[in-house]
Write a structure and sequence with these properties.
Chain B: Keywords: Membrane, Transmembrane, Transmembrane helix. Chain B: This is Membrane protein DUF2157. Chain B: The chain crosses the membrane at residues 126-148, 154-173, 194-215, 221-241, 246-264, 270-291, 312-334, 354-373, 394-412, 418-445, 452-474, 480-500. Chain A: This is D-inositol 3-phosphate glycosyltransferase. Chain A: It comes from Kitasatospora nipponensis. The complex is a heterodimer of chains A (490) and B (507). Chain A is α/β, with parallel strands linked by helices and 490 residues long. In chain A, 46% of the residues lie in helices and 13% in strands. Chain A has three domains: 2-66 and 167-265, 3-Layer(aba) Sandwich (Rossmann fold); 75-159, no CATH class; 289-448, Rossmann fold (3-Layer(aba) Sandwich). Chain A has 19 helices and twelve strands. A six-stranded parallel beta sheet of chain A has the order 3-2-1-4-5-6. In chain A, helix 7 (184-194) links the parallel strand 4 (174-177) and strand 5. The longest helix of chain A has 21 residues, at 221-241. Chain B has 507 residues and is mainly α. Chain B is 68% helix and 1% strand. Chain B has a two-stranded antiparallel ribbon with strand order 1-2. The chains are: A alpha/beta (490), B mainly alpha (507). Chains A and B meet through helix 1, helix 5, helix 6, helix 8 and helix 9 of A and helix 3, helix 4 and helix 15 of B.
C-alpha cells in the first residue's frame, strides 16, 4: 500500500499539533510506504522529525524566495495563457463563472511543470489582464478602485500560492492531504491526471483560518478579495474532488458541507490519545481545586474562568484555581491582565499561574475538576487527555467539545461566568457524581478516542479507497486493479 | 509551530494569524425583556438584535470580502449555531454572517497606508557618496608630475597607455564584482557578499595592475597604476558594504595633500607619501571590513544557496567597460587624436578638465536622482489605475529627473570652468557633447538599476565601440563624441521611457 502525505508548514519540518498527529500516523503503519510532499517556506528547513524507514521520500514545494527567472511564454502560448488567466480571475471574482476554476487550475499545472507559470504570471500582459478584469464595473472589486500596486501585490501573492503546482504529483496509491489549502494542490492534480484517490483530512478549517489571518494583514480590499477568493475556490474544488473528507470532529463538517462536500463523502475520524500515557490520575487533591491546562492565550478566555472561579470561591472559600502551561508568544500582556483581574477580584493566592510543567498528566491530577474555558476549539487534546486521566470536566460548548465529552462532563456556554461557576459548584459538592463522571470519561476515551482507533480508521480508509472505484471518472480502472494487471503482464 | 504558511516571508505583522478576535459578539448580559406597561396598548415590534450587532461590527463587515469572513470572525469569537438561534433568531452563523454582509455597505477602509518608502534617498548619504566619487580625482593632481610627458609610447605620453588600460579593466571588473556582491546582499547573505569581495577585489587589482605593467612605461607611472588598481578594488569593497564614511576617511590625506599642492610647491617625496597613505588607508579599512564580514555572518559558507546570475554579472562588467570608455574618450579624446595624427594641428577647446570635474562631481546628485525616480515611480503605482496612466506618469518623472540632472551638470561645468586656471569658457559643441554623455550615462545607470542589463550594456558598448574605432581612424574627437553619445542618448531615453513604463519593472 502506498500513500503520499501532503502537508503545509508542518510535518516533517515543523513541530505542532498536526505534526505530532502525522508522526503518529506514519509510525503506526510500518507496512505502508509513505512519500511526503511538503509545502514549506524556504525549502531549506531542516527535518524536525526522524523519519522511519517506511517513508521513502520527502519532496519540498517551497513558497518563498525569488521566482523562477525563466522566460515568459510568447505568441500563441502566451495568448492561450492570458485567455486562461482571464477565465481563472473571473471564476474567483464572479460566482457566475465559478465552474471555470477547476479547468483553469489544472491547465495551470501543465504550464507550471513546463516552468512557464511563474514567468507568465509575472509578465506585463498578465498584469494588464488582471487590471482589466478586476476594474470591470460588474465585479465587486471595481468599486474598491484597485491600483496598479494592488495588481502587483495580488499577482505576487497568487504566484507564490500556485508554486506547489510545479511539483510532480503522485501517480498511484492514495494522495492524503493533512490540511486543506495549498497542501491539497498536488493531490488535486494527481486525482485529475492519474485518477489517484484524493483524501482530505481537516483538523481545523483551513479556509476559516485564512479568512481570520488576512484580516489583520497589510492588504487592500481588492487584494484580499482576490487572494481569499482563490482560497475559497481552492477549498470548494478540494471538497468536491476529494474521494473522502475526514474532519477531526463533527463540528467542522459545517464548513465542509457549506463548501460543497457531498454529505456522504464526509466521515469524521476523531483524534485519539494513548490511554497508557494518560493513566487514571488517582486520588484527588485534598483542597477543592479547579485545574486548567493549555497555552495562555486570549482564545482560551481565562478571564471568564477567573470570574467564574470568583463566584465558586464565594461559596467555597478554600477553593483554588491552578492554571498550567506556558504563555503564547505575544500574549504576555494578556497573562498580566488575567493576573491583575484575579487581584482585582480579591482572589489573592488562591489563583496560581503554574507555568510550564514537565509532565502534563500532573496538571490534570492536580484538580478535582478540569476546566476548559476556550471560545474556539477544534477537538481539544487537553480535554480528551483529562478524560483519559479519569477526571470530570467542565468545558465551554465550542467546536467538537460536546462530541468529545458526551455525558461524562458538564458543558456550558462560552463567555459566561455564572453557568460555568454553577457547573463547577455542582460537581465540587457531589464527589460521587464527580467520580462516576471521571470513570465514564476514561471509558469513553478507551472506547472511542484512542490513538490506535485513529490509526486503524485511516488504515481502513486507505484500503477502502484503493479498492473501490466509486469516485473515479467513468471508464478509469482503480489503481489497485491496474497494479495487479501490470504485475500479471510482467 | 505548525500551520498555514504565509505566502511571502515578510507578509503582515508578527503574530499575524494567531491574533485572537475580541469582538464580544455575544452580549455579556442578555437584557431581560421588559414587561409591557399599561401605556403600551399596541406592543411594539421588538428590535432585531442583528441591527445592534451590525452596528457593533460595522468596521469589520464594511471591510469583509465575503460572508465567510464574517462567519469566521463570529465563530472565533465563540458564537455557536445554538447562540445564533437563541440570541439572533437565525438558523446558523453562516446565515447570520450573510445577513450582516448584505446589511452593511462595503467601505473599503483597508489597512493604514504604508508610510515607509523603500527608495527614500538620504541626501547626506548622496553628498557623501558624491564626495568619495569625486575626491579620488585629486590623486591625479598629486600624481601629475609622475608622468614624464616628454617621452612617448604608442604616440601617447609615456605611461598613459598603461594607466588607461588598467583603469578601464578596473572599472569593468569592479562593476561586475559589485553586481555579484549586491546580489548576495539582496539575498541577505552578507557573508557570501564578503567572500565574493575578498576573492574578487584583489584578483581584479592584480589583473589591472599586471596589464598596466605589461604595457609598460616609466616606473613612477607604473607604480601609480598599481596603486590605483589597489585603491579601486578597496573602494569597491567599502562602497558595496555601505562604508562610505571609512572611504572618506581614507581619502582625507589626498584631499589635504592636493590642497597643499595647490598652494605651495611640494617635493615629490611628500606627494608619494600622501598617495601611499590614501592607498594603505583604503586597503586596510577594506580588509578590516571584510574580516568583520567573515566573522560576523551567521550563515555558514557554501550552504548551497544560489547566487546572482552570472549573465547579469557579465552584463554589468561590459556596462562598466562601455561607460569607462565613453568617459575616457570624453577626457582624453584630444590626446588620443594627437597620438593617431601627430601632424595635425592642435585642436581647439582640448582642455576637458572642467567637464570631467563637473561630471565627477555630479555623480552624487545622479545617484540621488535615481532614488527620486524610483521613489516617484513606486508612489505612482499606488495612485494610478491603468497601465497607460502609469506610463505617462513615469515618463514625466523620467523627463524631470533627466532635465534636472543635465541642468546640474551644466551649472557644475560653468562653476568649475571659473575656478580652473587658464580655462576658456566652454563652447556650445563641447557643452552639447558633455550633456549628451551625461544624459546617456544617467539613463543607462537608471536602466541598469532597474534590471534592464543587457539592452543597456549593448547600447553603451555599441556607442563606446563606435567612438573608439572612429578615434583610432583619426576622426575629430568632438564630432565623434557628439555622434556616439548622441546616438546612445537618442536610443537610451526612449527605450527607458518604454521599458521603465512597464508596471512589472517596478515590483
Amino acid at each position: 500500500m502506498r500513500v503520499t502525505l501532503l502537508t503545509e508548514g508542518t510535518y516533517p519540518h515543523a513541530h505542532g499539533g498536526v505534526s505530532v498527529w502525522c508522526d503518529q500516523l506514519v509510525q503506526g503503519m510500518p507496512d505502508v510506504e509513505f512519500d511526503i510532499i511538503a509545502v514549506t517556506g524556504t525549502g531549506a528547513e531542516p527535518l524536525a522529525w526522524e523519519l522511519p524507514p517506511q517513508v521513502r521520500s520527502v519532496t519540498t514545494a517551497p513558497l518563498w524566495g525569488p521566482a523562477d527567472e525563466g522566460k515568459p511564454p510568447r505568441g500563441r502560448t502566451l495568448r492561450r495563457f492570458l485567455d486562461a488567466y482571464e477565465r481563472f480571475l473571473h471564476s474567483i471574482l464572479d460566482p457566475v463563472y465559478a465552474s471555470h476554476f477547476a479547468t483553469e487550475l489544472y491547465g495551470f499545472a501543465d504550464f507550471a511543470r513546463r516552468g512557464l507559470l511563474s514567468p507568465a504570471l509575472r509578465s506585463e500582459p498578465a498584469l494588464r489582464t488582471l487590471q482589466q478584469v478586476w476594474t470591470r464595473a460588474y465585479l465587486s472589486t471595481a468599486a474598491a478602485q484597485p491600483t496598479l500596486h494592488d495588481a502587483l501585490h495580488a499577482t505576487d501573492l497568487l504566484e507564490h500560492a500556485l508554486r506547489p503546482l510545479s511539483v510532480e504529483p503522485p501517480h498511484d496509491g492514495v494522495a492524503h492531504a493533512v490540511s486543506g489549502g495549498l497542501a491539497a494542490l498536488p493531490g488535486l492534480i494527481a486525482s485529475q491526471q492519474f485518477a489517484v484517490p484524493f483524501l482530505l483530512t481537516e483538523h481545523g478549517i483551513y479556509l476559516r483560518e485564512r479568512y481570520l489571518g488576512y484580516r489583520t494583514g497589510p492588504y487592500r480590499w481588492p487584494v484580499k478579495a482576490l487572494v481569499l477568493g482563490f482560497y475559497r475556490m481552492l477549498a470548494e474544488e478540494s471538497y468536491s474532488r476529494a474521494a473522502l473528507v475526514t474532519p477531526g470532529n463533527r463540528y467542522n463538517r459545517r464548513w465542509e458541507e457549506r463548501g460543497g462536500t457531498p454529505p456522504d463523502n464526509i466521515r469524521t475520524v476523531y483524534n485519539g490519545v494513548d490511554p497508557d500515557l494518560f493513566p487514571a490520575a488517582g486520588p484527588e487533591p485534598s483542597v477543592p481545586t479547579l485545574s486548567w491546562a493549555g497555552r495562555v492565550d486570549p482564545i482560551k478566555d481565562l478571564e471568564t474562568l477567573i470570574r467564574a472561579f470568583a463566584l465558586v470561591k464565594a461559596e467555597i472559600p478554600d477553593a483554588r484555581l491552578r492554571m498550567f502551561g506556558g504563555t503564547a508568544r505575544g500574549a504576555e500582556g494578556y497573562r498580566d491582565g488575567c493576573v491583575a483581574l484575579a487581584a482585582e477580584l480579591g482572589l489573592g493566592d488562591s489563583v496560581v499561574f503554574e507555568g510550564r510543567v514537565e509532565e502534563i498528566q500532573d496538571a490534570y491530577a492536580a484538580g478535582n475538576i478540569v476546566m476548559l474555558s476556550s471560545i474556539s476549539e477544534g477537538f481539544p487534546f487537553t480535554l480528551i487527555e483529562a478524560m483519559s486521566s479519569g477526571r470530570a470536566t467542565v468545558s465551554t460548548d465550542v467546536g467538537g467539545v460536546r462530541e468529545a465529552v458526551g455525558e461524562t462532563g458538564l458543558v456550558v456556554p462560552p463567555r459566561e461566568p455564572e453557568p460555568m461557576a454553577r457547573a463547577a459548584l455542582e460537581l465540587l459538592r457531589d464527589p460521587a457524581r464527580r467520580a462516576a463522571m471521571g470513570e465514564a470519561a476514561r471509558l469513553r476515551v478507551i472506547e472511542q478516542f484512542t490513538l490506535r482507533q485513529n490509526i486503524d480508521g485511516f488504515r481502513n480508509i486507505y484500503t477502502e479507497l484503493l479498492g473501490e472505484p466509486r469516485w473515479l471518472p467513468h471508464g478509469v480502472a482503480p489503481v489497485a486493479e491496474r497494479a495487479t494487471a501490470a504485475e500479471g503482464a510482467a | 509551530m505548525s500551520g498555514p504558511l504565509r505566502l511571502v516571508p515578510d507578509e503582515g505583522t508578527p503574530g499575524w494569524a494567531e491574533e485572537t478576535m475580541r469582538l464580544r459578539t455575544i452580549p455579556q448580559r442578555r437584557k431581560r425583556p421588559r414587561l409591557g406597561t399599561a401605556a403600551d396598548t399596541y406592543p411594539e415590534l421588538s428590535p432585531d438584535p442583528l441591527d445592534e450587532l451590525a452596528d457593533r461590527l460595522a468596521d469589520l463587515c464594511a471591510d469583509a470580502v465575503h460572508p465567510y469572513e464574517i462567519a469566521a470572525f463570529l465563530e472565533s469569537d465563540g458564537l455557536t449555531d445554538e447562540q445564533a438561534a437563541l440570541t439572533y433568531g437565525r438558523p446558523d452563523s453562516f446565515t447570520l454572517a450573510e445577513e450582516l454582509f448584505a446589511k452593511v455597505a462595503r467601505r473599503y477602509p483597508g489597512p493604514a497606508p504604508v508610510v515607509t518608502d523603500p527608495w527614500r534617498a538620504d541626501p547626506w548619504r548622496c553628498v557623501l557618496r558624491g564626495l568619495v566619487f569625486a575626491l579620488p580625482g585629486l590623486g591625479y593632481l598629486l600624481g601629475a608630475d609622475l608622468f614624464a610627458t616628454q617621452r612617448e609610447r604608442f604616440g601617447l605620453p609615456s605611461g598613459m597607455a598603461a594607466m588607461a588600460a588598467a583603469t578601464l579593466l578596473s572599472w569593468a571588473w569592479n562593476q561586475a564584482l559589485a553586481h555579484r556582491a549586491y546580489g548576495w546582499l539582496s539575498r541577505a547573505d552578507r557573508g557570501a557578499a564578503g567572500r565574493a569581495l575578498t576573492l574578487g577585489a584583489p584578483l581584479g587589482a592584480l589583473v589591472a595592475a599586471s596589464t598596466g605593467w605589461l604595457l609598460g612605461g616609466p616606473l613612477a607611472a607604473l607604480l601609480f597604476t598599481i596603486g590605483q588598481s589597489g585603491y579601486l578594488g578597496a573602494a569597491t569593497v567599502l562602497l558595496v558594504l555601505g562604508r562610505e564614511k571609512l572611504l572618506l576617511a581614507a581619502l582625507t590625506p589626498s584631499a589635504l595633500g592636493a590642497g597643499l599642492v595647490y598652494l605651495v610647491e611640494v617635493p615629490s617625496l611628500v606627494r608619494w607619501a600622501v598617495l601611499l597613505a590614501t592607498l594603505l588607508g583604503a586597503v586596510g579599512l577594506a580588509c578590516w571590513e571584510l574580516w568583520r564580514c567573515a566573522h560576523g555572518s551567521e550563515k555558514p559558507a557554501g550552504d548551497g544557496a544560489e547566487g546572482p546570475a552570472w549573465t547579469g554579472t557579465a552584463a554589468a562588467g561590459l556596462f562598466g567597460l562601455a561607460v569607462g570608455t565613453l568617459t575616457m574618450i570624453a577626457g582624453l579624446g584630444a590626446t588620443l587624436h594627437h597620438a593617431v595624427r601627430p601632424a595635425a594641428a592642435p585642436l581647439d577647446g582640448s582642455n576637458t578638465g572642467p567637464a570631467l570635474v563637473a561630471l565627477t562631481l555630479s555623480l552624487g546628485l545622479a545617484e540621488w536622482l535615481l532614488y527620486r525616480y524610483r521613489s516617484l515611480a513606486t508612489s505612482a503605482l499606488g495612485t494610478t489605475h491603468s497601465p497607460g496612466a502609469f506610463r505617462r506618469r513615469t515618463g514625466l518623472v523620467l523627463a524631470a529627473c533627466l532635465l534636472g540632472y543635465l541642468a546640474a551638470v551644466t551649472a557644475l561645468d560653468l562653476a568649475s570652468t571659473l575656478i580652473w586656471a587658464h580655462a576658456h569658457l566652454i563652447g556650445a559643441a563641447q557643452l552639447a557633447a558633455l550633456l549628451l554623455l551625461a544624459a546617456a550615462l544617467w539613463t543607462a545607470l537608471l536602466m541598469q538599476a532597474l534590471g534592464v542589463a543587457w539592452r543597456t550594456a549593448g547600447l553603451c558598448l555599441a556607442a563606446a565601440g563606435f567612438e573608439s574605432v572612429a578615434i583610432l581612424a583619426g576622426g575629430d574627437p568632438l564630432r565623434v563624441q557628439l555622434y556616439g553619445c548622441g546616438a546612445a542618448a537618442v536610443l537610451l531615453v526612449p527605450t527607458a521611457f518604454f521599458v521603465l513604463g512597464r508596471t512589472t519593472r517596478h515590483r
